[in-house]
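hiii, so i know i said id send this last week but things got crazy w the move. better late than never?? heres the sequnce for the chain we talked about at the cafe, plus the structure i predicted for it. fair warning i was half asleep when i ran it
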Amino acid sequence: MAQQVDPIRRRLLFGTAAVSAGALLTACTSNDSGSSDNSAEQAPVADGKPGKPVTIGFAGPQADHGWLNAINVNARERAKTYKDVTLEITEGSNDTAAQIGQIETLINKKVDVLVILPADGKALTQVGLKAMRAGIPVINLDRVFNSPQAYRCWIGGDNYGMGLNAGHYIGEKLKDKPNARVIELAGMDTLELTKQRTQGFDDALKNYPNIKKVARQAAEFTVESGQAKMAALLQANKNFDALWNHDDDQGVGALRAIEQAGRDDFLMVGGAGALSAFQAIKADNSVLKATVLYPPTMAASAIDLARALGQGKGLGGMAEFEIPSSITLYSAVVDKANVAQYMATGFK
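okay and structure toks below
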């Protein structure tokens, strides 16, 4: 998961992560007879009908986390839905030199479009620039390159929005409780995304003067770290009302620690959208009551965008002839009321 794109850049906000990119890319209906003569000419838009063949190169990091594996799955499955798309996908690596080599191989193969989720956006900026200079447009997925010249379009999640929505959800649940106390199980503090999630959470809590954050502990996005760090939080905090955990994978470990401690006196909100979290929310038999999405379906949307770009088409529902330069996905809150809607998007 990744740093957020610079907020001053123009962004297109999706209303919900569950809305498929296929729906976004369907053709617009023609203007009716009552439309003004001054209306914009209809742009050619991408749809599901076979068109110009497009070879898409896809390069991502090693799938050593449930969310990253779901990124690869979403890319492959979306590409299969198009008869005019050929997907060249790399093995994936967390070694920046190895990933750069994989991308250079795709450049040498002269793919039509590249979709890149860099292991390190800063370290891979130069290879993004190399592709763009070679005339191969780049869809930069999630972890943003340092230069906007290194990509044609960025699409990714909203880390600040995750924290903001988690904070507002907890705030609304506790707004009538005097002296409410919350704690936070964060991700890796070396990552900018973790800082953004915490900032969003803290900013949301400012709207609820009765709520105080009394503890914060960083973990490492793994089950093992989630269990160990949550156990420490529970030992140090005997009384609190809510927990926000940044990541559903480490949340599996956190729930183990909570169950082992026999605690059920608070509510928990997770992050990302793992299937295990959705199942626990639906069962409603643990402290986990909601999770805030960081949807891996963005990889499917990236394939849609790459196909549209390769065919020289825009997006249905928009007047412009070109795809936008930046798309930020919305961090929807999933709880028992709407979990059935999102279940199919959950990653393992």
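btw The chain has a mean pLDDT of 89. thought thatd interest u
miss u guys!!
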